[in-house]
Write a structure and sequence with these properties.
The chain is α+β, with helices and mostly antiparallel strands. It is built from two helices and five strands, in the order H-E-E-E-E-H-E.
Length: about 100
């Protein structure tokens, strides 16, 4: 079954809709880059595209960088977004699909 059919498409659409509502809000990003490398940064969602979203994240000091991730990264928990102050998952409903 491909991502373009069935319930997977509905899940991706819901992730996209929820992230659209969060554009510009500060949150914590946790991304598994592989080989036991996990990055944690504070950032904001800047743009939403059909297959990915772009975040502006704060690096060390005053530097910022733009990073992009696919919606499937959230579905597979390669990327997690949490509330910056409470550490609660931004998409708690997604836990039942993992």
């Amino acid at each position: 079954m491909s991502v373009s059919d069935g319930p997977h498409l509905e899940i991706i659409d819901r992730i996209k809709k929820d992230l659209t509502d969060l554009v510009g809000k500060e949150m914590k990003l946790r991304a598994n880059k592989g080989r036991k490398v996990i990055i944690e940064r504070i950032g904001t969602i800047q743009e939403i595209y059909p297959n990915l979203f772009v975040m502006l994240v704060k690096e060390d000091g005053q530097r910022f960088s733009r990073v992009s991730y696919s919606y499937v990264d959230l579905l597979t928990k390669t990327v997690e977004l949490t509330n910056n102050s409470t550490d609660e998952n931004i998409l708690p409903w997604l836990a039942k699909y993992n």
